[in-house]
Specification:
With 735 residues, the protein is α+β, with helices and mostly antiparallel strands. 32% of the residues lie in helices and 22% in strands.
């Protein structure tokens, strides 16, 4: 019996050793970053009545240090997630879902790109990023109890830059290419001629069905990025009947790594800007300075090319220009947390001359995308923050360093502009492949491996149109300024891959702007908060389906209710809640080239949900749709694709729809024509203290947001100090 006891003790001891090893290995084997160069930083943070930080410093790096501290005070939780993604360690925090980010981090060689390109940036840009990293390190030292992952800090500027490399391509749809390739599924793209051995694409599955290496989670920002919307308007003073107006109305997730954070900066080096960023950035991505401002909307040009490689029998080499080349292969270890332990999961990533390569059952495919192997965007964003004129601002845009997103611009002189900004690949216009850049290209010809981007002159843009207004609502660039002012479609090469789609938001904005007279504040507010649908596009097709449907019972009752709908999601109609539940899936099918849903099935699902949780088909929309944070629970109106956008939700246990994506940061900017000071207002759905439930600023903007109201932005120092509720200085102790 003693040997049995000894055996049990041995097994138990081995189990304990294994548990300890699995619980502790990851921090010790992870890549460790050198701390930024030692330097003293000092910043003043002034918080207003809404807790929004205004950060001051002698130099720009002082301010960047303060930005990191202020943001960490409000949302260190999310900042750590972003830093973990930027270092390929998110799976050690978020498990399988986080590991998908880490896989893509290695696939795109985000670290290698940062290591190669970050040292080439101008010294002042690098100084900004090193100071920001120092601020994160300082906060982590001072609040060690909040740190999620051992050895996550210190970080340096190169780590922060790697995060930009990882995240930016997903805004123009890279995830919708990587996901099906990893899963071995057809690409959901517009194909040209068939490629031997590769099937013509059928629509891809829903986000919930997209799988990466674990088979359970969608790739980062894969399907979600496609739903990222936004509205933007700029109105010249002669049309506004007063000030030059810029309206930023972004639609982003309300929480997480791509949720907006509002702040203002000012230094003695001339950096003075107010706006918002995503966690992990030292500067705002949109907003205004005293002279000019801009906002963004997601655009979806064809920025990704896929090549099918001809490989040898062992799959170790691929043919290019008649010669065999080694397919680069690297084994990476993904940390995947399961409860108290973190498992080391090996995965292999490949690379060809074209770019990252993915091997699946159908073959080996390489991808190449706009902005590949570049970190120049972080320098360009810094420069446009400090631009003082349209010419200076446009000279930075002309670098084509910021890979994507439309820019709507306005300034103190009354200039307004729309730039269809995209680092579109400079593809050769070869006759035999001209129509197939959206398909799968042969990978054995180096002439198809483009280098660089098209010239700035080739992309669509409008400056000071005769209409006096510009807008974008994630629509094609050929409807931006109204009849007589719009860009001609045939002026741009089809090889550019410019999208040609409309949203309901764009149809409504175009109609309302075209029909309007003076676009003063009241008129623009009515347009911004419009909640109507046009019976066009997917909406028209939906109601045609309903018109043709033969139904009785509950389905027939629901059908008849919808046929009497006024196509307005203002909460006043009996069919608003039913229509809200129904529209999103059909909208997604239209915009994402997914299968058209069966109307009968979706109608039954929506009706069953309402009957289960409300006992009726016609509850008020505001009873169904809620804005919830902490102990606040407020009613909402608006639609998935209306100008007052309430795009995506999660279903709470009580059956209410808890908004998670839609109208987020809104900023309304005005430059008076009499030379007066720029003035702006803003709002966000919750409050400045994004993940601090104990803060009064966790929920203090919610009621204003629900009521379609804005709060003042204190841009000027005298206004900031006059409305200051807290004022303090932060410094670094060591790095």
């Amino acid at each position: 019996m003693k040997w049995i006891v000894r055996g049990v003790i041995t097994v138990a001891a081995l189990a304990i050793v294994a548990f300890v090893a699995l619980a502790t290995w990851e921090p010790f084997f992870a890549h460790r970053s050198a701390a930024p160069p030692a330097r003293a930083y000092t910043a003043e943070i002034v918080r207003d009545e809404f807790g929004v930080p205004h950060i001051y410093g002698k130099t720009d790096p002082d301010v960047a240090f303060g930005v990191a501290i202020a943001h960490a005070e409000d949302d260190f939780f999310t900042l750590q997630d972003v830093i973990a993604m930027s270092r390929g360690r998110y799976g050690a925090i978020a498990g399988e879902e986080g590991a998908t980010f880490d896989y893509v981090y290695h696939l795109l060689d985000a670290r290698g790109t940062a290591e190669r390109q970050y040292p080439q940036l101008p010294a002042d840009s690098r100084a900004l990023f090193e100071a920001y990293a120092s601020g994160l390190n300082q906060y982590a030292r001072d609040h060690a109890d909040e740190v999620k992952l051992a050895n996550l800090f210190p970080v340096n500027g190169e780590d922060v830059a790697a995060g930009f490399v990882l995240r930016q391509p997903f805004f123009y749809g890279l995830g919708n290419v990587i996901a099906p390739l990893v899963a071995g599924e057809p690409l959901r793209r517009e194909f040209g001629p068939d490629i031997p051995g590769f099937p013509r694409a059928e629509p891809a599955p829903d986000a919930e069905e997209q799988t990466a290496m674990t088979g359970t989670h969608p790739l980062p920002w894969g399907e979600d990025a496609a739903l990222l919307g936004s509205n933007a308007w700029a109105v010249a003073p002669e049309r506004a009947g007063g000030p030059t107006t810029l309206i930023s109305n972004s639609h982003q997730p309300l929480r997480g790594g791509v949720a907006w954070y509002e702040f203002s900066v000012e230094s003695e080096d001339g950096w003075h800007f107010t706006g918002a960023n995503f966690p992990g950035s030292p500067f705002p991505f949109l907003g205004h300075n005293r002279h000019l401002g801009w906002t963004n909307t997601v655009n979806r040009p064809d920025m990704v090319d896929v090549y099918m490689l001809e490989t040898d029998a062992g799959g170790k080499r691929y043919k290019l220009d008649g010669e065999w080349r080694e397919l680069e292969e690297k084994t990476v270890i993904l940390p995947v947390r399961f409860g108290p332990i973190t498992l080391p999961v090996p995965r292999t990533v490949h690379r060809a001359k074209h770019g990252p390569a993915i091997v699946n059952d159908q073959g080996t495919f390489a991808i190449r995308y706009g902005g590949i192997d570049s970190v120049a965007q972080i320098d360009a964003y810094y420069r446009i923050n400090k631009a003082t004129s349209f010419d200076e601002w446009q000279s930075q845009m002309a670098r084509m360093a910021i890979p994507s997103t439309n820019f709507i611009f306005a300034d103190e002189t009354g200039t307004i502009a729309y730039i269809y900004n995209a680092a579109i690949p400079d593809r050769p216009e070869l006759d035999e492949v001209r129509a197939n850049w959206r398909g799968v290209l042969p990978g054995d010809r180096s002439e198809l491996i483009w280098q660089g981007t098209v010239d700035y002159a080739e992309i669509p843009k409008l400056v000071n149109p005769a209409s006096g207004w510009l807008y974008n609502a994630n629509n094609e660039p050929f409807t931006a300024a109204g009849p007589g002012s719009d860009l001609p479609r045939d002026a741009f090469s089809p090889v550019l891959g410019i999208e040609e789609k409309q949203t309901n938001r764009s149809r409504r904005a175009y109609k309302l702007l075209t029909e309007a007279g003076t676009l003063d504040r009241a008129a623009l507010e009515a347009i911004k908060y419009d909640m109507a649908y046009e019976r066009e596009g997917y909406i028209d097709r939906m109601w045609d389906d309903l018109d043709m449907m033969q139904a009785d019972g509950r389905r027939g009752e629901a059908r008849d209710l919808l046929l009497g709908w006024d196509f307005t999601a203002d909460g006043k109609g009996r069919a608003d809640a039913l229509a809200y539940l129904l529209i999103r899936d059909f909208m997604s099918a239209e915009y994402q080239n997914k299968p058209w849903p069966l109307m009968a099935d979706k109608l039954d699902e929506a009706a069953a949900h309402l009957m289960t949780h409300f006992g009726r088909l016609d509850p008020p929309l505001s009873d169904l749709l809620r804005l919830r944070q902490g102990d606040k629970d407020l009613p909402l109106t608006g639609g998935s694709d209306t100008l007052r956008a309430m795009t995506t939700w999660k279903v709470d246990p009580d059956g209410r729809l808890n908004l998670v994506h839609g109208d987020s940061f809104i900023q309304w900017v005005e430059w008076p024509t009499d030379g007066g000071r720029v003035f702006s207002r803003s709002i966000q759905p919750f409050g400045a203290a994004t993940t601090r439930p104990g803060s009064p600023h966790y929920t203090d903007q919610m009621q204003l947001f629900v009521d379609h109201k804005l709060k003042p932005v204190y841009f000027w120092r005298d206004d900031v100090l006059a409305n200051a509720k807290r004022r303090y200085t932060v410094t670094n102790t060591a790095d």
